[in-house]
Amino acid sequence: xxxxxxxxxxxxxxxxxxxxxxxxxxxxxxxxxxxxxxxxxxxxxxxxxxxxxxxxxxxxxxxxxxxxxxxxxxxxxxxxxxxxxxxxxxxxxxxxxxxxxxxxxxxxxxxxxxxxxxxxxxxxxxxxxxxxxxxxxxxxxxxxxxxxxxxxxxxxxxxxxxxxxxxxxxxxxxxxxxxxxxxxxxxxxxxxxxxxxxxxxxxxxxxxxxxxxxxxxxxxxxxxxxxxxxxxxxxxxxxxxxxxxxxxxxxxxxxxxxxxxxxxxxxxxxxxxxxxxxxxxxxxxxxxxxxxxxxxxxxxxxxxxxxxxxxxxxxxxxxxxxxxxxxxxxxxxxxxxxxxxxxxxxxxxxxxxxxxxxxxxxxxxxxxxxxxxxxxxxxxxxxxxxxxxxxxxxxxxxxxxxxxxxxxxxxxxxxxxxxxxxxxxxx
Length: 427
Prior knowledge:
4-stranded antiparallel sheet; 9-stranded mixed sheet; alpha+beta; 13 strands
């Protein structure tokens, strides 16, 4: 990250702090390819892709230094099963069966990693067929389980990562994953958790992505309002089942090569295929550019729950609380935790603006070090975006019906502190 770029970007960040989210329009089928590391700054990514919510692909040059690209891959570009077994053989990993549909996803089971690798070897030997089906190792929290391993370094473009900053702080979860699967494994049609951004880097192998900008998914719903499991299925041509399918645009298609990173914008639905035996690193993340989209998603999810159990509103004394509980079970977060999420993000930035960064913290791989790397103006941008969403949350009628006495500080006090920190920083 070149700090000089941010040092002279005051007007740039102030403009975007006060602007609304840019439109989702994208030239049909066009995805930019970012080739040269030395010519592409964080400011470029922020301006051209984060704010306008456009996808892009980073060349393999951006992952050349990763340990996983050196050590996990054989000389001919295949997964190095022997090395992986040596390092992770005793791990227990989540594995999905791509040949089985359960509700609107693939059923998962927990398997020993060495059993999965033995299955994969046999699957290749049997010409990619097995009585067990096509098994795909997905959503493995490898970084959390093996923090000492030299796997990868998060590129600076994705370092403003509020989801992992928050879940690391409460030591409960994270949104950093490893995927491993044979040729033919795939992920059904979906949008990412909380309508977050995601980035996906191929350590080896190739993927095909089918992307739909926000709003296009509405044309793909069936007459009951359900999204398709597979957007390539012939059944979507049946107008009696999918009445608006013919109004949809063709997907944006990306073929991702080994070493390349795909950036998937917030709220873009997608379907992904492994064209070869493939290993990838994936993160989901939210930041000041798309936190308002996350908040809109949560409001939509709560409204859907309220519609679903509306008949119980009168006889149930704690109906509003039950709606929050159901929403959390479905999405992983409720309104009170969303407040705490905003609070942690805000307080980390307020601390740096008010106290600076000591040498010990700046030398470590910590949220505060990441904030310092991106610069004080980025911290101010983050706080301004937090103020907007926190103001909306505080005024929300469903939020006000909850018992908020456990929230510390109270929303009003946190908002006051936020605004004061911004004013002081901009003096």
